[in-house]
Amino acid sequence: MRPFTPGQHALLETALLQRLQQIDRRLAEQLGGTTRAEHARGVLQQDGDDAPQRGAARELDLAMSDRDTVALGEASAALTRLRNPEGGHYGECDDCGTEIPFDRLKVEPWALRCVACQEAHEHTSAH
Ligand SMILES: [Zn+2]
């Protein structure tokens, strides 16, 4: 792993932890059901200009929970890599081994690939 400054390292770790907490809370809300109204309001706020129809809410929930599960896995994998410099290769592209620029990591600390490989990956995995 490339040497991050302690400041960079702390920033990335904090961002990943916040991301994990955020997703955790969202998943808990979906599973719990007690905060249904709150959750629905959150969804509506996110898609302000294209409010989901009542009937589509359930499917939307499922889709979100899928995405969150993936995101949760990515964030926790990134955190593990960040905390285990010996074992992981945090900040290096999974596909080509290029160092992912810190500016990108700052925005997406869970990024596993450089921009070029990520785009290629999304293209091939798109349905
Ligand atoms: Zn790459």
The ordered H/E elements are HHHHH
Shape: globular
- Characterize the biggest β-sheet: none
C-alpha-based Rg, rounded: 17 Å
Q: Structural class of the helices, strands and pairings? A: mainly alpha
Which residues form runs of ≥5 with pLDDT under 50? none
End-to-end CA span: 34 Å
How much of the sequence lies in strands comes to under 5%
Work out the number of β strands.
0
Overall pLDDT level: 81
Q: What is bound: which ligands?
A: zinc ion
State the share of residues found in helices, binned by percent: 55-70%
* Number of separate helices: 5
What does this structure look like?
The protein is built from five helices and no strands. It is an all-alpha fold. The site of zinc ion has 8 residues, from helix 5.
What is the topological layout?
Layout: H1 6-32, H2 36-46, H3 57-83, H4 102-107, H5 115-125
Helix pairs in contact: 1-3
Bound molecules: zinc ion.
Short description:
The chain has 127 residues and is an all-alpha fold. Helix content is 65%, strand content 0%.
Key terms:
single chain; 127 residues; mainly alpha; 5 helices; globular; binds zinc ion
